[in-house]
Design a protein that fits this description.
Blueprint lengths: L18 E6 L6 H11 L4 E6 L13 H11 L4 E4 L5 H8 L3 E4 L8 H10 L2 E4 L21
Parallel strand pairs: 1-2, 1-4, 2-3, 4-5
Amino acid sequence: MKDCSDPERPCHGRCRKVTVFTAGCFNRLHKAHFTMLVHARGLGNRLVLGISHDAHNKKPNAVPMELRWERLSALGIADEVVIGDKDKFSGTLERVDPQILVLGFDQKLPDEATEQLVIDKGIQVIRFPWFPGKEQDLVYSKPETPAA
């Protein structure tokens, strides 16, 4: 796939633009998250990272969505960080309009509306395996990029 963003190598409309979308709460960021994001980034030209709306983030260690958005945006791994829709995941998925949806090893499509949208739009769903490093919090600093 040719990178459409390289001004030195114009693609003259022949390249394929691929948006990759992945989402989660991200109350804390650990090395396994970062590894997953690096691998997701490699699947396309544009990585969009969705963070759960506060209405869906009911974990005991919940961090306000605005703070999570600031921290993940500052990390610089994603081209765009979006806050998920308050009402439904499928709304966020429709807004982002990705070609690829990346799920973590423990994630699934949340409801029938999302499953149907994935089918209707032909979104490729890729479930990544478990990555080590969950116990290593990054405190939202950028670690070394893992080898591909």
